[in-house]
Structure formats: C-alpha cells, structure tokens
Amino acid sequence: MVIETNKVVVVHYTLTQDTAEGEQIESTHGSEPLAFIYGVGMMIPDFESQLEGLKAGDTFAFGIEAANAYGEYDENALVEVPKNMFESDGKIPDGLLDIGNVLPLTDQQGNHFQGKVAWVGLDKVKLDFNHPMAGVNLYFTGNVESVRDAEPAELEHGHVHGAGGHHH
Ligand SMILES: [Zn+2]
Hints:
This protein is mainly beta. The protein folds into 2 domains: 7-70 and 133-157, Chitinase A, domain 3 (Roll); 75-128, Thrombin, subunit H (Beta Barrel). The chain has helices at 45-51, 152-157, and strands at residues 7-17, 24-27, 34-37, 59-64, 78-82, 102-106, 112-120, 124-128, 138-149. Strands 1, 2, 3, 4 and 9 form a 5-stranded antiparallel sheet that branches. A 4-stranded antiparallel sheet has the order 5-8-7-6, with no helix packed on it. The protein binds zinc ion. Zinc ion binds at residues 157, 159, 161, 166, 168. The site of zinc ion has 5 residues, from loops.
C-alpha cells in the first residue's frame, strides 16, 4: 500500500535546519512516531508531496524552503503594544515581559494566538507574531513506519486514532 489521499501515514523523522547536517529542530526518534491522515490539509503541502507514493520501509530525505514551510520572517509581524495591557491589579507580573517569553493572547474575536516578547521599552513592548519557525529552511530525513486506510471515524474527526494519534 502506498501513501496517497486518505491513508493514515506513520513516520519517524528528524527535522534539521537547512541540510541533513544542520542544527536539529526536532526528532520523533525515541518517542511516538508522527501519525497523520494524508491529503486532508493537516501537513505542510510540500511535506506531503515528497512522501507521495512511498510505502512502509521506505526512507526519505528532502528540504523545504522557509517560504513553502512556515513562511519567511515578516518584519511587519513585529507589533508595538502598550506595556500596561499586561498589568494585573496595576502591576506587570514579575518576569512576564522577559525577552523571548511567549505570551498567550486573545483578540476581541476570542481567537487565541501567541506573541513572543522581542523588545521592552519604558511604556511599550514589541511582540513578535511570526511563527517560531518563520524564516527557517527545513530538512527532513526519516522512514515510513506504516501506511493504512483511514477509518471512517478518523476521516470524520480529521485526526488519527490510536498509536501516534488521539486516544479518546
Ligand atoms: Zn477522534
């Protein structure tokens, strides 16, 4: 059985920056493999197209440029906001606005998102809303553990059940 739309694909991979020899970003080795439904928009499109047609036991190695992964780093995604919006009881909690801190935020529509503290001034703060992986060229090496048909319930839920997926 080969990887195609609506198959549950289970892979082990190591993600590095730029090349196979680059700095390691993450790896599934030593933990649960990645399990996903192929062709339903769960994954980066270029990641999927590189795996198409592979079968259990096959290996892969390919790069995806930042623009086709999490996007280029966008200077316009650095936003200056008043410091006092982080006050509670008239005081900014200690350590909240340390550079590099990732703050969970909610907009007026109730959407949750994250901003990283990039700069702190006297009464203003610059938050970075770029994806943490923005501007990073990805390189994947790995192997296909298994390929199977997705269960109807998995297609309905839009996620994998069992090993490497949701347990419910
Ligand atoms: Zn489910």
